[in-house]
Amino acid sequence: MQTLVIIFTIFTISCAFPNAYDDNEDIDHIVGGHKANSYSYNFLTALLRDGECFCGGSLVTANHILTAAHCVDYIKPKDYGLIQLLLNTSTLNPPDNGAIHRGVKKIVHHRNYNSATSVNDIAIITLDSPVENIKPIPLPRIGSTLSYSGMWATVIGFGRTLKTLAEDESSGNGSNKLMESSLQVISNSNCSKMYSESKETKISASMLCAYAAGTDTCQGDSGGPLIVEGTQIGIVSWGYGCADPKYAGVYTRLTFFYTWIRFNLV
């Protein structure tokens, strides 16, 4: 009997590698995406270490970046100086003229984040100085109970660009250019059916899923925003493969974390 090994993909491998960028305009990025307009998404933040992008995030106040816990839970305060935050750019190397650089003052991730199940995959970075002249992306209104099921959403990031099935080994570089794509939010019940064979991970109420044939987020897009009608509703979290037709991408559901977000935006 052949054993199928499923790779649980948490999207944290480098967004792009120095001197290995792909500038071919005809190749899709973010897996099945297209080049994004940086002025539309100048709140998008690249998290860099030693000049390499390892995750994304989004500016939600002048002083705070929202990202995924799995992007930063291992970073100790003594290492904050090694992390750089890059905003207002459509390319990583070199950044656009007018790109904004910031450092890290503080990182807090959800105390109940579970790396095995990806439950509570949310974190907030406090910047070392405010970001002026960039409008933070709005978050869902307090008390919103929207499931967003059936709505079309936008994802953006500098992550890997190659389609990867769940049973394949992860490989390939990220994109030097900011890319975007459209996905449809699906119900948690339908998403749970896609992952019904998984014993390690379950689709919880704190997650939401989005899917479209041939496109998906991938490694390096982690921590970035899932956006519906100009509002961030999710954080790129995990999935099986990248654009594997059998699996949707899984995101942290922001409406589940109203209290936690408000408490930590101080």
From TrEMBL:
<dbReference type="InterPro" id="IPR009003">
    <property type="entry name" value="Peptidase_S1_PA"/>
</dbReference>
<comment type="similarity">
    <text>Belongs to the peptidase S1 family.</text>
</comment>
<dbReference type="InterPro" id="IPR043504">
    <property type="entry name" value="Peptidase_S1_PA_chymotrypsin"/>
</dbReference>
<dbReference type="InterPro" id="IPR018114">
    <property type="entry name" value="TRYPSIN_HIS"/>
</dbReference>
<dbReference type="InterPro" id="IPR050430">
    <property type="entry name" value="Peptidase_S1"/>
</dbReference>
<dbReference type="GO" id="GO:0006508">
    <property type="term" value="P:proteolysis"/>
</dbReference>
<keyword id="KW-0732">Signal</keyword>
<dbReference type="InterPro" id="IPR033116">
    <property type="entry name" value="TRYPSIN_SER"/>
</dbReference>
<keyword id="KW-0378">Hydrolase</keyword>
<dbReference type="GO" id="GO:0004252">
    <property type="term" value="F:serine-type endopeptidase activity"/>
</dbReference>
<feature type="signal peptide">
    <location>
        <begin position="1"/>
        <end position="16"/>
    </location>
</feature>
<dbReference type="InterPro" id="IPR001314">
    <property type="entry name" value="Peptidase_S1A"/>
</dbReference>
<keyword id="KW-1015">Disulfide bond</keyword>
<dbReference type="Pfam" id="PF00089">
    <property type="entry name" value="Trypsin"/>
</dbReference>
<keyword id="KW-0720">Serine protease</keyword>
<feature type="domain" description="Peptidase S1">
    <location>
        <begin position="30"/>
        <end position="266"/>
    </location>
</feature>
<keyword id="KW-0645">Protease</keyword>
<dbReference type="InterPro" id="IPR001254">
    <property type="entry name" value="Trypsin_dom"/>
</dbReference>
<protein>
    <recommendedName>
        <fullName>Peptidase S1 domain-containing protein</fullName>
    </recommendedName>
</protein>
